[in-house]
Request: fold
Amino acid sequence: MSDPQLKEVVRIMALDQALSSPFGEGWETLVALAASDGSASHPMCLRLASPTALARDVADAIHALCMLHGRHPGVLDHAMTRNALPALAGWFEAAVDGFATERALLARLAAAVGPLPSTPHQAESEATILAQRHALDTLAQSDRSGCAIGASVALVIDWASIRLVLDAAAERLGIEQRPPALPIDSESATIVAATAERPAAERAMAFGAQQVLAQHRGLWDLLEARASARTNG
Reply:
């Protein structure tokens, strides 16, 4: 199956999941956004999750993901600090603890995968990723009610696709990994439903989610461009 065909299959499956979800419209919206605008449908993410991915492209992706999500505090840490809703505290605690494990996995992979591959315009690429990280941190610290929650839930949803890339890299490098300990869908859907009771917060939540997904797609776009530059440079 070609990359475009696989992309379409993944997108349709995710949309079917959203439409059949019993968790409410707010959750359905976020899942549908992740399916259409997130990592699951990006060709570069799919390519890097394949065992046939070039080692230099995998190394580039691991280091880029470390720059974007490997530092503390991150999106979930910032959002938990700003959270003012007691009903969401348990979800944030679980998400922060779970993502600490993901951050540790990123660090192990970065140490094992070797240095960044030589790529034209490295400084510009690093500046782009740092700008993306700043954008994510800003979303997670937004005073707009619902925005940080949407950003946090979108990260948890989209991480399932990103984790496929990490799992493929770990298998290639002989690193043992465990399933992610992030909140499951029903837990995330519960806090989405609680937030979506206010229309303004529901809109802000969708905005936060869209922006996180846009930053992730931007990262895959960058990695795709860098892979092309290494091949054709």
Q: What stands out?
A: Residues 7-21 have pLDDT under 50 and may be disordered. The first helix runs from residue 3 to 19. The chain is about 75% helix and 0% strand. Residues 153 and 188 are 7 Å apart (CA to CA).
